[in-house]
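Protein: Homoserine O-acetyltransferase
Species: Epichloe uncinata
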Amino acid sequence: FPLTTIRDDVNLHKLLLDDLGVKQIAAVIGGSLGGMFVLEWAYLGKDYIRCIVPIATSSRHSAWGISWGEAQRQSIYADPKYDDGYYLFDDPPATGLGAARMAALLTYRSRNSFESRFGRNNPDPSKVQTISGRQRLRPSTPSEAHFHIHNDGHNIKRASISRQGSGSSIQVASSSSAAPPTDVADPQFHGPQKSTSTGNGGKNGESLTGGETTLPASNYFSAQSYLRYQATKFVKRFDSNCYIAMTRKLDTHDVSRGRTGTIGEALALIEQPTLVLGIESDGLFTIAEQEEIAQHVK
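Structure follows.
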C-alpha cells in the first residue's frame, strides 16, 4: 500500500464533494482518527467548514500512539501467513491481525476502566471465544491439560504433544505425577477438574486404571474473553494490509507540518466555532491533548 496522510484523504474528499456540488459543510464531527480528519478539514476555511467537533483526538500523533501502532504492526508481521503483505485473500494473517486488534483495544480504556468492567470475573464457559473460532478438545490427561493451559489462546495445530527433533509424535502417557500434588496445589488453578474421556469401556470421570483422574483447570478471565471475542469479530471484516496502512496514516498526523513552526501556532489558524470533547478513560488520547486543542483554537 502506498503511504498516504490524513491531509491527503481530506483533499481527496474535498474533490469528491466539489464534484457533487457541495458548497458548504455545516459541521465536521469525528473521534480518534476521525478527530484528526476534523482538524484537517478546518484548514479548508470557515466559509466552507462552518464548525468542528473533534472528539478524543490530538493535534499530532504522540510518541505513545506511534509506539502502540508499531507494536500492532509487528503483531501482524510476526504471523507467518503475512508474507510481506502478499498473502492469500482466503488465508490471511488472521492471528496476527487479531493480536493487533487486542493491543488496540487496550488503548481504548484505562487500567481502572478495565478493572471496573471486568475485574477478575470469569465468563460463561459455554461462550468461550478464540481468535480462530475453533474450540479445543477437552484434555484427557494431566499433561495434556497443562499443555492446553500453557497454550490457551493460541491456535494449536497438534493433536498430541511431540518432542521436537525426534521426527515423531509421542502421546504423553496418563500419569498422576504430571499434575501438582493435591496437598500443595493452588485449588483455583489446579482443579479439581475430572476427565470426561472414555476409553476401553471406562465411564466419564474414570481413568483407564479404574481411578478418577484429576486434571489441572485453567482459570479463564472475562478480560481475556472480551479481547478474544472482539478480535474474532474484527478479523472477519478487516484486512491486515489496510490495518497497517491505517496505523501509518495515524503516524503522519501533525497539523503544524508545512504550516507553522509550532502546534500552538497551527491550531491558532483554526477560526471555526469548535467544541472539543475528551474521554477520561481513553488510554491513547489524553485529556491534556484535548485541552491543548481548546487552548489554542481561536
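Remarks: The CA atoms of residues 102 and 227 lie 6 Å apart.
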